[in-house]
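USER:
Make up one protein:

ASSISTANT:
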Amino acid sequence: MILHLYFARRFAQSIGVVAAVLLAVVALVDLIDQTRKFSDLGVGFAQRLGLTVLNVPETLNQILPLILILATVGLFVNLARTSELVVTRAAGRSALRALVAPVTVALALGIFATTTLGPIVAATSKRYAVLAETYRSGGASALAVSEDGLWLRQGGTQGQTVIRAARSNADASVLYDVTFVAYARDGGPVRRIEAASAALQDGVWSLRSAKVWPLATGINPEANAVAHEILALPSNLTLDRIRETLGTPAGVSIWDMQDFIAQLEQAGFSARRHHVWLQSELARPIFLMGMVLVAAAFTMRHTRFGGTGTAVLAAVLLGFGLYFIRSFAQILGENGQIPVLLAAWAPPLASILLALGLLLQAEDG
C-alpha cells in the first residue's frame, strides 16, 4: 500500500509539472492568436488577456491525453534511472501491479475531467463566445435552444434584435414560425415582425408571409401594421456563426446534455453529434487509462538496456496515433457511418487491450 501511494504521489507530481509547462505554452500561443484576431478592432491588452484566460481551459481539456502520456513517460524514465523499478521488481512486484497506482490516478483524473472540468469548460466557452462576438460586432449574437423553441439574438449599430422560432430545418438555414422584436439602442422596442419562415442568405433575412407592427410611442400598432409577402431584413449573422454556436457540444455541460439533446430534436435539429460527444465524454476516463498503459508499455525498462529515446518516441507517436483514431471514429459516428456507441467506446477499449498486450509480451515473452 505504501508503495502504491508513493507511485501515485510521484505520478501526480509528474502530471503537475507537465501540465504547468504546457499550460504556459498554450496560454502564450493563445494570447498571440487573440492579439492577431482583435488588435485591429481596438480591443485592449486586458480584454485580450481575459479572452485567453477563458479560452485556455478548453485547450487544456483537449490536450489532457498528451499530458498523461508525457507524465507517464517522465515518471517511469525517472524511476528507471534511479533503479527504483529494479528494486520494485526484486521485491516481487510485477509490472502490472506497479501500474495500479498510475492507472488509478488516471481514472480519478478522467472522472474529474468529465464531471467537473467539462462543465467549467462549457461555462468559459460560452462566455468567450459572447465576448468575442461583442468585440467583433458591438453586440452579442447568441443562439439558445429551449422548450419554447429557438432564441437568437443579433446586434448592430441600430440596436439589438431578438428572434424566436418554433423550429428550424436540420442545418439551421431556415427558421419557421418566426418572431422578430427589434430594440433601439436605448433598450426600448421599436418593431415587431411575425413571419411563416425566415431564411438567412448573404447577410439578409428573407421573410415570407410577414407582418410588421410598429411599436413606437403614440402609435396604434395594429392600425399601422403592414403585411408583406416577402420581406428582407439586414443581418450581421452568418450560417457558419449560427452553426458554430449551436453545434459545439463542448459548450454544454455534461449534466445538461440529455435535456439539450431532447430540445435539439424537438426543434428539428440533428443531435447525433451531441450523442457522440456525450458517449465520448463518458468513455474518456477509460481512454486516459489507456494512454497511461501505452506510455508505460514502452518506458518500464531499465536504462542500461539502452534505446530510451527510441522508446519514448514510440510511446508518444503511438499515443498520438490512438488519439487520431479516436477523433476519426468520432467523426465517423457524427456522420452516421458507424454506430454512436462503437465510435465512442471502441478506441478507448482498444487502447487498453493493445497496451495490456504489449505489457504482457514484455513481461512474459
Summary: Residues 142-236 form one domain.
